[in-house]
Amino acid sequence: MKHYKVNFSLVTIILLLSSMHVFAESLSSYAFVNDDGTLSIKNKTIHLYGIHIPATSINCRTSQQPPVCGERAALALEFKIQSFVRCEVMSENPDGSLTGRCFANYSNFDEGEDLSAYLLERGWAIALPDAPFEYHALERIAQSRGMGVWGIAIDRPYINPFR
Questions:
Q1: Domains of the chain listed by start with CATH number
Q2: 73: which of 3, 23, 121, 124 fits an S-S bond (Cβ 3.0–4.6 Å)?
Q3: CA distance 52 to 83
């Protein structure tokens, strides 16, 4: 009788776990940086997890020929991404795009550099309210140093200025 209860419990746990919708998808390929700071990997648009990239003025990198122009965060991402990018998909958005934690310069022995953290520590992104604590700490450090968007006026779409 005891053996039967253990097997029944095991089967129940397996059924519950298999019915949960878990995003374990990982994409790894060359990434194209879109004007809004999203990435295009394998024909999928990926928003970087935990951050909002505010609109900034258009700048041009004239050290390249032809000059590369775009939002400051997009230019920073293009500078950082020199090879393949690996993204761990966290969720799918209603428009079909994905949200994920993306890493550049990764290897078998190193997970690489978190692109959301990279933008936050340079001041080109804002941590969302539900972002990890580390992201909020990086945002505060960039803000205290007056880096990136903290030197110019921006809109924070999730904060009501009339409160």
A1: 19-147 (2.40.50.90)
A2: 124
A3: 24
